[in-house]
Amino acid sequence: MAKEENLNGNVDGDNSLEEKSQKEKKTAKYDSGAADLEKVTDYAEEEEIFSQDVANAITAIGDRRNKEALKKQAREKELLKVSIKKEDVDLIVNEMEISRTKAERFLREYHGNVVDASIALTN
After folding, report:
1. Half-sphere exposure of residue 44, counting CA atoms within 13 Å on the CB side?
2. Can you name the residues that pair with 11 across neighbouring β-strands?
């Protein structure tokens, strides 16, 4: 009678240790499965957050480009309102040896002032 039965019907000694180790293994398997699931959900949440950040950044860039385009259009309209003389354009084209469109642009930026436009072109 080396091994006696407990009140629960178990034999003292090796069997109770084996049962404990089996329970621990089951718990460990369960915990590792839960940990794996947690990793997957964390990854999915990070991906979702990342894609939202990217979408927000793209929207911000698009908004900034639209604002810049509107400013550029407004500037072009302002420049077209400036009156310039054909003689002034011809003078700058001949003296500076640049294209007519570039000469017109500089004259418009300097409000039709030939001297200021010429100085800007030489600098």
Report:
1. 6
2. 5
